[in-house]
Specification:
The chain folds into two domains: about 110 residues, no CATH class; about 120 residues, Glutaredoxin, CATH 3.40.30.10. The chain is about 50% helix and about 10% strand. It contains nine helices and five strands. Strands 1-3-2-4-5 form a five-stranded mixed β-sheet, covered by helices on one side.
């Protein structure tokens, strides 16, 4: 500030057309930030679609659909190349969203059978939102002499989605979970039932993973609070004897 003050602003660039570019760049950054924040309340497929639309909008703004004149300079060609790359990326994001993918970094993997679907890690999860539903799900597992995994989850929980689309979607983890009853406790709504579900096991919030033996007793020593990679999660399952 002292340097700029003593030079009377001589070092500052003058206002001009370049300011429009600066405003456009910051506008895109703010839109990207908004999409990132919506990830806490919207399903991954919607975030993927919104990201694709933003990329397509940037591609059109940069002139991806315009024809280059024959005498175009190097910078104009570079801008057109960037626009085409954004166009391809945006198309891939939208295609992945329509195909059921939920991964921003690998949207097309779902077409090869390796993407994280919107309902990852599968459809065997029994979702409960009240203490009574949780009691019923655990009682059903005990009656079947089946171990149970109870996963505390919320739509706004970033670490929960990290677990859902990485650790729990890992084929090794899915094979290990096959014999277990999978119970997802959805505490997205901060209501009386959600607070009661958290209070039952002394949890402050999601994510949390609890392991129950076939006799209905929790393996408290192996309780997981937070996210964990697939290798650590598999080791925890083995220590729990499930």
């Amino acid at each position: 500030l002292l340097a700029f003050g003593t030079t009377a602003g001589a070092l500052l660039p003058r206002a001009g057309a370049w300011m429009d570019t600066v405003k456009a760049v910051f506008g895109v950054l703010f839109l990207g930030l908004a999409i990132w924040m919506l990830d806490r309340v919207l399903a991954s497929g919607w975030i993927l679609a919104l990201g694709g639309l933003l990329l397509l909008g940037c591609a059109v703004y940069l002139g991806a659909l315009q024809r280059l004149p024959e005498d175009a300079g190097g910078w104009r060609k570079l801008r057109q190349s960037l626009a085409l790359i954004l166009l391809l990326l945006g198309t891939a994001e939208l295609a992945g969203a329509l195909g059921g993918s939920g991964s921003l970094l690998n949207p097309l993997a779902v077409f090869a059978g390796g993407g994280a679907p919107l309902a990852a890690p599968g459809t065997r999860w029994a979702t409960v939102t009240t203490p009574q539903q949780l009691d019923a799900a655990l009682a059903q597992a005990r009656a079947a002499h089946q171990g149970a995994l109870v996963d505390y989850y919320a739509q706004w929980c970033v670490a929960c989605k990290e677990m859902e689309h990485t650790t729990l979607a890992d084929p090794r983890v899915q094979r290990a979970l096959a014999p277990l009853a999978l119970i997802r406790v959805d505490v997205t709504r901060d209501d009386a039932d959600s607070r009661a579900l958290l209070k039952r096991y002394g949890l402050l919030g999601p994510p949390a993973t609890l392991f129950f033996a076939p006799d209905g007793r929790e393996r408290t020593a192996e309780r997981l609070v937070g996210a964990e990679d697939a290798s650590g999660f598999l080791a925890r399952l083995r220590r729990a004897g499930l």
